[in-house]
Each structure stands twice: as C-alpha cells, then as structure tokens.
Design brief:
It is a single chain. With 178 residues, the chain is α/β, with parallel strands linked by helices. It has a single domain, classed as Nucleotidyltransferase, domain 5. 41% of the residues lie in helices and 24% in strands. The protein has four helices and five strands. The protein has a five-stranded mixed beta sheet with strand order 3-2-1-4-5. The radius of gyration is 17 Å and the shape is globular.
Length: 178
C-alpha cells in the first residue's frame, strides 16, 4: 500500500536571549492514504525537561520525521500487505537535505561536517538511521514541500505542531503556576 505523511515542527523561544527561559516545541504529523484521505493526525508537545534536552527548530523538525516513522510502524502499517511505501513531506530543508544528501557523507566522515565539527543532533540522525534499517520500517522517501503555502496537508501538520507546542506550554504554566 502507498501512504503519504506530512510532518512539521514548531518552537517557542528558539534562539532565546535569556538562558533561563524555557524552550517548548511541538510536532504535527498528518498521514494520508492512497485516496488522499487523512487517516491519522498527531500533535505532540515537548519541553527541555523531557526527551529532547536542547530543543531547537531543527530538533523539532527532525523529531517530526522520526516520530512519523515510529507511529507509522506501530499504528498504521498493514503487515498483511506485501509492500508498504510512505512518502514523507517536510518543509524543513535541514531534514530533507540531511536525509537525502548529507547523511551518508556524515557517516563516512565519522559523524563530522566538512569543518570537522560534530554533526548537530547526531543522536537523532542515528536514531532515524536505525529506524530506517529496521525490518518493520517501510520504504520511505523524503521530499521538500514549501512551508506556509497552499499545501493543505502541510498546513494541517503546521497547525498540529503549533497545537502540540501550545499544549506543553499550558502544562508547564499550570505546573509552575505562572
């Protein structure tokens, strides 16, 4: 079977001036079937107190791709089908170029970029690579889509990412009574 997925990340306080200001992020994911019907929508929020200790825009964009594959494998994939393919769309050039153009170069260079510095978010790229090699992971391709444009599904993913970010902010405010 063939599926599409649109994933996006959102962040509050990216590049914060006050190091004591918390950073919050969210991801949004929309799964589409062959008939171009939405079959699942996902919204998740993250704070630096959780899984991602240093949240940036790129971290949330990459988290959206990683989580889209995890969710697909655990909740959507039809294991009775002979073959599943998923086309993943992201408005993040960092994610698209990282996966399609840079990943294997980074591996050959010992997880370093051309300057010799370590690849940013190396653990997340390694996690994505591990997922991709899993026998449960379908064949997937990653494509770039223009953000904040007229693409209905990407706009829904963006709205879900913002919703996830806002939900974690509300939880933090309640917890910290602000």
């Amino acid at each position: 079977m063939y599926y599409s997925c649109y994933c996006d990340g959102a962040i509050k306080n990216n590049g914060r001036k006050n190091p004591d200001s918390p950073v919050f992020g969210g991801i949004g994911i929309v799964f589409i079937n062959q008939k171009r019907e939405i079959i699942k929508e996902v919204s998740m929020g993250f704070s630096e107190e959780g899984k991602y200790k240093h949240i940036t825009n790129n971290v949330m964009e990459l988290a959206a791709l990683i989580n889209s594959l995890k969710i697909f494998v655990s909740k959507i994939r039809d294991y009775n089908a002979n073959y599943d393919v998923i086309d993943v769309y992201s408005d993040s050039e960092y994610v698209v170029k990282g996966w399609n153009e840079r990943l294997y170069k980074w591996i050959r260079n010992g997880w370093c970029i051309n300057s010799g510095d370590e690849v940013s978010n190396k653990d997340m790229w390694k996690e994505l690579l591990s997922i991709s090699k899993s026998s449960k992971c379908p064949t997937f391709r990653v494509y770039h889509v223009k953000g904040h444009d007229k693409n209905e599904f990407n706009n829904i993913a963006d709205e879900l990412a913002v919703k996830g970010k806002e939900s974690i902010i509300k939880q933090w405010e309640i917890k910290n009574k602000k």
